[in-house]
Write a structure and sequence with these properties.
19% strand; 254 residues; single chain; 11 strands; alpha+beta; Photosynthetic Reaction Center, Chain H, domain 2; two-stranded antiparallel sheet; seven-stranded mixed β-sheet; extended
Length: 254
């Protein structure tokens, strides 16, 4: 007797459901392997010892990325990660406990002063040129006539004292915006992140650190470009001050 079955005893909907579930499970495993290219292997929260990478379902096969403009290749994951040394100690002996800097707070590398070991080369634009450079290198970028040009203005720190004078602007040639202020402290020139500065008509206020701390801020090795690692260290240096520059910033208000 013909019951009108097209595929006989095969349940097409059930096969489709099983196929979808199998595909979804395989996708989850694939994604979990792929996301282990950055930040793995994990570290023990107390000792800092590297944890095992895991089995074949937890470890991704190395993948090589070809960098543009002849910048070489990068393979991830890799086992060449060096241990990170910080000048700080735990306040309590449990995983996730906060650290307290030991000695120079700006060299501790913890809290708002933590930084990543970024590439030692400069960030580049779509044409292969260093992206963040002094404004004089890109004459097509200027300060808007309706805005205050901070060059020549004094810079004051969190303590209200004069830290130096703005001598130049470092701009992002790809996005046409100021990224850093070059500040002459009298003994050296340092870069201060523009987002941490308040530009007024007659002065620039950078309350991240005190005036005396400006002299210890880093400056790029090259006068015409800044590497990604140097950017990381510069922002971390000034970020440190938001918590450690003054004693009244260390504890909560309540």
């Amino acid at each position: 007797m013909n019951y009108g079955n097209i595929v006989g005893t095969i349940d097409a909907a059930q096969i489709a459901m099983i196929t979808f579930i199998g595909f979804f499970i395989a996708l989850v495993f694939w994604l979990r392997r792929e996301d282990r290219r950055e930040g793995y292997p994990l570290e023990d929260a107390l000792t800092g010892r590297l944890d095992p990478a895991g089995g074949p379902l937890s470890a991704a096969a190395p993948k090589t990325f070809i960098l543009p403009f002849g910048k070489g290749n990068v393979s991830v994951p890799n086992d060449s990660r060096d241990p990170v040394e910080i000048n700080a100690k735990r306040r309590e002996n449990f995983g996730g406990a906060p650290f307290t800097p030991v000695g120079d707070v700006f060299a501790a590398g913890v809290g708002p002063g933590a930084y990543a070991d970024r590439a030692k080369g400069a960030d580049i634009d779509a044409h292969g040129n260093p992206r963040i450079v002094p404004m004089g290198i890109v004459p097509e970028i200027t300060v808007a006539t309706a805005s205050t040009d901070p060059r020549g203005l004094p810079v004051y720190g969190a303590d209200g004292l004069k830290a130096g004078v703005v001598t130049d602007l470092w701009v992002d040639r790809a996005e046409h915006m100021v990224r850093y202020l070059a500040v002459d402290t009298g003994t050296k020139t340092v870069l201060a992140p523009m987002p941490m500065a308040v530009v007024r008509k007659n002065a620039v206020i950078i309350d991240a650190i005190n005036a005396a701390d400006f002299a210890g801020a880093p400056f790029p090795a090259s006068p015409s470009e800044i590497t990604r690692y140097e950017e990381e260290r510069t922002v971390a240096y000034f970020g440190t001050g938001y918590l450690y520059a003054n004693a009244d910033r260390l504890e909560p208000l309540v």
